[in-house]
Amino acid sequence: MRVFTLGLAKTSAPLTLTSLYQPPSSATVPGLIHAECLTPMLLGSPILSPKRMQLRKLVMFAAWESEDAIDEFMSASKLGQAITAGWHLRMTFLRRWGSVREFAALPESIGESDPQSPVAAFTLARMRFREIPRFLHWGKPVETLVRDNPEASFSLGAIRHPGTIATFSIWNSQQAMINMVRGQSAVARPKRHLAAMQERERRDFHHEFTTLRFRPFAEFGSWEGRSKLLPKETDE
Questions:
Q1: Which tens digit of pLDDT belongs to each residue from 4-53?
Q2: Helix then strand then coil, % of the chain, to nearest 5
Q3: Is 78 helix (H, G, I), strand (E, B) or coil?
Q4: Residue 188: what are its φ and ψ, rounded to 5°?
Q5: How many Cβ atoms are within 10 Å of 49's Cβ, its own excluded?
Q6: In 23-88, which ranges are continuous DSSP H helix?
Q7: pLDDT value for 48
Q8: Residue-level pLDDT at 235
């Protein structure tokens, strides 16, 4: 069964840079399908801020052939050991919206899923450079909408220069995430995400863009003092 992971690690700057631009691949790691390595950024932070690019921290999102392949990578590689010392989440696929080449083979949906179950979402975008100012204008309000939403148990942004941007979030329920997307959350200015998507449809910010939705089933380790990032009902 294909398994997906989101891993967070504290690293050295050399390991971060190597991972960003010579990431693990199916040719170098048995059982790995594809990995995206990025540096984390605090959602909603000022654009010119060290919190927007943290070279001693790393985010790795990956698709795997099996959990055995994950376990081998975590124990046998320097990057895997750094993630083991940090935190990672294991997930199964639910739904794809949009398309990025590396994940285009995923189906649009595997079928109906419980709207009250916790869900994780990973968004990956390849930017059009001339559209970055527009993207920042429309995207930053969405960052704070997700970051401050009481139904999101965890969220972060990530970046790999020159043009790849990602976000990751865990939601108490799939319905809560859908409410946010549709502008129906019980928060101030709930339509920020909806407005940004409408602007994107008017003129796209990206060469490629996808949002992937997952069922989280196991987490390991801790991150920045937090050892339980999943909603309680999914803990194992």
A1: 999 999 999 999 999 999 999 999 999 999 999 999 998 877 665 666 66
A2: 30, 35, 35
A3: helix
A4: -65, 145
A5: 10
A6: 67-76, 78-85
A7: 56
A8: 44
Contacts of 80 (CB under 8 A, 6+ apart): 73, 74
Strand, coil or helix: 81: helix
Instruction: Give the integer Cα–Cα distance in Å for 57 and 182.
Output: 32
Contacts of 191 (CB under 8 A, 6+ apart): 183
* Cα–Cα separations (whole angstroms), residue 27 to 30, 35, 37, 177: 7, 12, 16, 36
- What pTM was computed for the model? 0.92
Q: How far from 22 is each of 3, 35, 38, 64, 141, CA to CA, in Å?
A: 22, 11, 11, 18, 32
Domains belonging to the chain, first-starting first, are 3-234 (3.30.70.100)
**Where would I find the beta strands (DSSP E) of the chain?**
3-10, 32-41, 57-64, 87-99, 119-127, 152-160, 164-171, 206-221
Predicted confidence (pLDDT) per residue in 170-204, tens digit:
999 999 999 999 999 989 999 999 999 999 999 99
Token pair belonging to 89: 């989440």
Give Dmax (Cα) for the chain: 47
Spatial neighbors of 33 by CB under 8 A, at least 6 apart, are 2, 26, 62, 63, 64, 65
Q: How far is CA 41 from the centre of its chain?
A: 11
CA distances to 17, 79, 178 from 162, in Å? 13, 22, 30
Residue 103 · residue 212 · CB < 8 Å: yes
